[in-house]
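Batch job 17 of 40 flagged for manual review because the log was empty.
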Amino acid sequence: MKLVKFVAIALLGIALIACGGGNKPENVAKKFIEYGYKGDVDNMIKLINMPENAKKDGTQEIVSGKLKQAAIKSKEESDRKGGLKEVVVESSQIDEPNGTGRVKIVVHFKNDGSKSQTENVRVIRSGKEWKVNL
């Protein structure tokens, strides 16, 4: 019985480590771009650094509307190029002491001959988490 518990806990630990990329600025930027090219605005918004008063003054609704427009265009472009093949972090410049940074992302598409797209994402630390800074 103890062996079964040990194995179960070990497998759970491995699964958590493998699935959790952590909240690294590069991972946040990569996910943000992936969501954009898939048209997933709801998950994009979760990754944005949004001030507390944004819900009260309507800023969040405006940002959501603008992101939706951008995501629609990105999804259309991705579909024209056969869909996403790979999203790669090419480089990052992270200023840990100030909690800011830039991540350069390259988006590759499935259609052969489709030109890759380069995206630059600004990130900022908000509390203990990294977020996209628009």
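Reviewer: the log was empty due to a logging misconfiguration, but the result itself is present. Confidence is low (pLDDT under 50) at residues 1-20. Unflagging and moving on to job 18.
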